[in-house]
Amino acid sequence: MSVTVLCPNGRRVTVKMTPNTSLLQILEEACKKEKFNPDEYNLKHLKRVLDCGLSVRYAGLPNRCQLEMVAAATPRTPALVTVHIVTASGLRLVHDFSSTATLWEILSHHESDKSSEEILLPASESGQEAVLVYTMTRISGPQLHTTTLRTLGLAQGKCMLRHSIQSVNTQGQAHVSGVLPKKPKEEESEEIECEKTKERETTSIRPENKPCKGGPASLNTIRQLKKDQEQRESRQQREDEPMETTEPDTPDENLKVTCSGTESAVCGGGNTAVNLPVGNTAETPTTTSDPPPDSSTNHNVIKLGEHNAIIFSMDEAPPTHFTEEDDTFFQLSVGEIKRLYMEQKRTIHQLEEAPLRTKNLRELEDNKRVLHALNQYPVTHIRIIFPDQHVIQVAFKPIHTVADVKAAIKPFLANTTQEFQLDLRHPHRTLDEKETLVSAGCVPNARLYYTTTATQSGPSYLSADALANRSSFAGACTNLTQRKHSRRKIRDLAGDDEMKEEARSSVGHISQSSLPTEARSYPSASAHSSGAVPKVPKWFKLGK
C-alpha cells in the first residue's frame, strides 16, 4: 500500500504504508524528503482535512490515493499526552507523558511505581513478554523500545493502551483472545484415508468417476458414503428385529379389536393406540374434553358512532415470541453487497441528473400524489392508542383533517373538555389540526398516539360507557381485514373508472383553479376520448 503526497513546492512524494500506519508518520516522511516542518502542515484528502492522530485503517483512505499538504491554522507544539493503561486484571494506570516517550519508558515508569503491584514487564527468563494494543496495532518485544507516542500519531490529547502478558512464541492478532482450535480427529482420519486411496490409485487404472481426488470434494464424498452405509445398517437392523406388541394393563375386549379401518383413537389416556373400525365408532364410548375458551379467538365486534369506532385493549393481544438471531443473520453476502451498491449508485445518479423543477411543477407532482392516494385508498383506517393500552379504531376518508379525528374520539373520553394531541412515532411528530390525513402521511392506515399534559383523573382515559361496549382484539383485526378484502372485490367488479370518479368527487379542496398553469394547459383525457382536437400552439407548424 502506498499514497502520493502533494507538497507545497509542487513535487509529489510516494510514501509506503500499512493499515496501522498513522497519518502523522506519512506527513513526517513526506516532509523529511522535501525538508519541510511537519508541525506546520496538515494532510488533506479531496475536500477533507484529516486528523493526523488517526491511522490509515480508521481514516477511510483507499490504496494509492493522493493527499495534499496544507498549512495548519495553528502549528503543533510539543504537549503532554495522558496515557491510560488497562491491564488484564482491570487495573487502570493513568499518567501524563511527553509525545517523544517510548512505550518501554511508560511501562518502566509504572513498574517502578510502588503504589501498583501489577507486573508490567516480566523477566526475560520467564519466556514471557509485555504486549500493548492500540487501535488493533500489536506492539511487543523490541518494538516497545523504538515505538513512541508520536509514532502512533499521538502528539497531544488522551489515549488508552491495553496491556497483557503473553508467551514469546505466541503469535496472534490484536483482536483475537484465544488460540484457534485444533482440527477434529474425524477430519484427520478422513484425510489419512483419502491419502491412502490416492496411493492405491497410483498403482492401478483410475475409474471414470473415482470419488477421491485429493480435494474438499473427496472429503465430502467419504462422509456421504459413511452416512449411506450407516443408514443401510440401521435399516437392516430394524428389519431383522421381531415386531413387538404391547398389551394394555387392564383386560378389555374393546381394546383387543383390530380391523382395517382408517381411524385410530387413544384409549384410557395412555400411550397405546388401537385401530377402530369406521362404521362402529358410535358404539365405542369416548369422552372428549373441550379446550378452554381463548380470549384471542373471540370475534366480538361492536361498532360505535358515525365512523364505525371499535374500542379494544392491546392487553388481549397474543404474546409476541422473539427469536434471537445469530451473527450470520446480519452478515451480508456478496450478492447483497452488490445489490446495495447498485441501488445507492442509482440513487446518486438520479439525484445528480434530476432536472430543476419550478414551484408549479412541484405542486403538480404533489397533487398527482394526492389524487393517486385518493384513487387507491378511498378509506383510511386510524388507530388511536392511549397510554393505558386501550385503542380506538376508526375509519375516515383521506380528505378528512386531524381535527375531524379528534372530534370523533372526544365522545368516548372520560373528560371531554380535556385538551390533547395526536402524535406520530418514528419519527416523532405532532399533527396539526388543519392538516389532512393524506398530507400527514396517514393513508392507507396509521397509528396515532394520544398525549396530554393534564393528569389522569380516573382509572382510564375512556368513559365507562365506552369501556362497556368494548370489542375483542381478534374481532377488531378481523373487521379490518374484511373491510380491505371487500374494498378490493368492489374495485375489481366496478373497474377503475368508477373509483377514479369517486376520488375526483371526494377531493373538493383540489380544484382546477388551484392547479398550476402547466397542469391546466395540458389536454384532458376526456378530450382525447371524445375525439375533440386540442388547441395547437402558435409556434407549432406542420412539416410539408
* Structural class by secondary-structure content: alpha+beta
Q: Low-confidence segments, ≥5 residues, pLDDT <50?
A: 173-179, 202-217, 243-296, 506-531
Order of strands, main sheet, comes to 13-15-14-18-16-17
- Rg, rounded, reads 39 Å
Describe the fold and architecture:
This protein is α+β, with helices and mostly antiparallel strands and 544 residues long. It contains 15 helices and 18 strands. Strand 1 (2-6) and strand 2 (12-16) form a beta hairpin. Helix 5 packs across helix 6 and helix 9 crosses helix 13 (496-506). The radius of gyration is 39 Å and the shape is extended. Residues 173-179, 202-217, 243-296 and 506-531 have low confidence and may be disordered.
Features:
18% strand; 6-stranded mixed β-sheet; alpha+beta; 15 helices; 544 residues; TUG-UBL1; extended; 5-stranded mixed β-sheet
Short description:
With 544 residues, the protein is an alpha+beta fold. It has helices spanning 23-34, 56-59, 103-112, 143-146, 185-202, 216-240, 327-330, 334-353, 359-376, 402-409, 464-468, 473-494, 496-506, 517-521, 525-530; strands at residues 2-6, 12-16, 41-45, 48-49, 66-71, 80-86, 92-98, 128-134, 137-140, 157-167, 263-266, 273-276, 310-313, 380-385, 390-396, 421-424, 429-430, 445-451. The strands form four sheets. Strands 13-15-14-18-16-17 form a six-stranded mixed β-sheet, sandwiched between helices. A five-stranded mixed β-sheet has the order 2-1-5-3-4, with helices on one face.
